[in-house]
Amino acid sequence: MPRIPTSTILQAYHQHRLLPRLLQECRTLDSARNELRWLRERACSIASKSTGRSTAGWRTLLRSMCIARSKGVPLQYILGDQPFGDLEILCRRGVLIPRPETEAYTVHTADLIRSYLRRRKRRGEANDDSLRIVDICSGTGCISLLLHALLAPHLKKLSVLGIDLSTTALDLAHQNLQHNLRLGLLSSRAAAEVTFARGDVLDFNSSGVPGVKQVMLGQPEFSSHGTAQCDILISNPPYISMECFRNGTTARSVRHFEPQLALVPPTRQNSTITGVSNPEDVFYHRIISLFFELQAKLLVLECGDRPQARRVVSAYTALANQLAPNDSMSVEIWPPKDGLVPDDDSLNLESEACAVLIQPKYGDP
Amino acid sequence: MFRLPGICARGLGRATRIPRRSPWVRSVTTDAALSPALLTRARVLSAEHTSLSTQLTDAFDTKIAKRVGELTPIAQAVKEWDQIQNSMVELRSILDDPETDAELRPLALEDLESSQAAIPSIVDNLKQALIPQHPFAPFPCLIEIRPGAGGDEAGLFAVEVLRMYMAYCTRRGLRATIIKQDVEDGTAEDRMSEGVIEVEADGAYDILRTESGVHRVQRVPATESKGRTHTSAVSVMVLPSFPESGASALGFDDPNSDYYIDPQEVKSEKMRAGGAGGQHVNKTESAIRLTHIPTGLSVSMQDSRSQHANRKKAWQLLRAKLAERRQEAREQETVALRRGAMGGVARMGRGDKIRTYNYSQSRCTDHRSGITLHDLHGVLEGGDGLDTVMDSVRNWMVEQEIQALAAEETAKLKNKK
Fold first, then answer.
1. What is the residue range of A14's domain?
2. CA distance to partner chain B, nearest, from residue A133 (Å)
3. CATH number of the domain bearing residue A218
């Protein structure tokens, strides 16, 4: 990490005493200034709510917030929430913070589904107005909740099931559901239609936690005649390799304060799944085979960078040739590289997070 | 002792205050005279109304129906005008007739007086009906505030202008939110480099469009050590805001629509340093910059912690700016057309100084309507004073429209001859 020039630190100090502290984590003056504004807004609103304190209350609060931030505590843990689409997602220690990339492809997925629903309506096949979504590794529940918020107005029935191994995450996901219901950001249907349950995706049979399919069989909406069923699989699984976690690719703040469970896949029992060349891809292989078993129609997977996404695509094609050679699905990496991106940006794009979208050709999930 | 002139001036301001009217209704307080050119235009339009109405009874057509709807107020006003003229002619003939009963005479006189008294309001109606509604009138609006010449002082005053409009909207019950407030580099945070207020009420554009232009401030700045008065300027731009829900109605996706923007022509930049993304990092930089390549218009947004929300707001602002620009181009065209007829039109553009806030005299002067209020404090607090100024400007705008229309008609008549 390059050093921050002394002149910048001085300039920051000149503007606000606390800015240099934020600069340690933010690295640029612009972003430090924004964070200071957000922190101050929050400090003031907390101080004004709690009566009986002295008028200097918010200043003390702001100072302690900035000190925490300079030690690398994520802004979202300090503030306690993060906007995600139109929702407000609560963030707590021990649960991964929603990222902007996740927000982007979740909104894109909702757009895809909506345009598909419109086409279906135009063709007059509106009799089957229901959809089942399974969100694997749901964390804060942000994807499940945002999809419900975006799609519920267009569907008579929408069932969303979030599955996670961490009980801390599940508790927080429930809180997020209640929190957004209270704020009126979710329709009241969400209380009945969104559920979160504990499940182990890798399903090594050693933890005693049920696998994804077992969890689904326990939900009446996701099982029929003893088989698990769903229409859409979406997931933001752990995808960082142990090496990238340690060699500085992963930021200090993430390494120290966010749960490793949500970032790095376990390495011990990879041998149970054959054909996995990179240990960090283990979740993708498991989810792709689930996709075939459940006969879902749309699969969305977040990947750490383009090389990983290409590995996921080839893993999918290999399995597709084996299991369903006649199915024609379109496989794409989103966001697409278009001609507008200048050359020096294309290198950046290569290392940015992206999503693999697998859907029936002609966009008909 | 220093406060004394201020108090007196404020008292004066109160005395001269025009009773408040709802700005939803355009008020015209012109002299009762109606130029013959305007009347001919009204008659032509009224005739069009009659012929279109008969067409409508034969076959319904939405386009014609819409046009009829637009013309109905004009036709109605013309009818009223004719009625009152006829009745006055009749009454006069009764009065002039020497054979009229002595009993009837005072009654006729009374009627004539009441008719005469009614004429100004009818003329007003007619004028109002003739002015076409501004195309953005029904929309909510965005108010963009930028400091102009004057350095730090302009930045300080920009914050005060922002507060003035926020207070005004609160007092008028219009829901307003600050969606953007950028501070200048290297200075204290009360100096703004750009601010945008979103006023969500329908019709807000019509209420606030009097405010577009350059606002000049004359005062001794807080930063001045020698007590000299400085003059600096803040530019205010009122833009129409298009609701997300009306996307299909306004045709955001229809290339033929006025509000269409080809997404291919918009370059979107995330202000994020390169390197790994996703779970690897937790950057809070959420700034977005959109650039419309054909026009070079660029907007940036960084106020929200959500990149998605910033992008949404940036698009809203870009849409508003482009729509305003297209509308302005169209207005320029009509101005160019009219210029031939009138030889120079008094038109106030964005670049013109429209108002002066003078602190030492506690005075606020609008250079369009010529109104001067000695209640600067009340104006800057978004109080009744600001309403008075805005009302006077609104009247001035109507006046300008009427003059332009009249000139256009006269020119047409001349050309015919």
1. 6-71
2. 23
3. 3.40.50.150
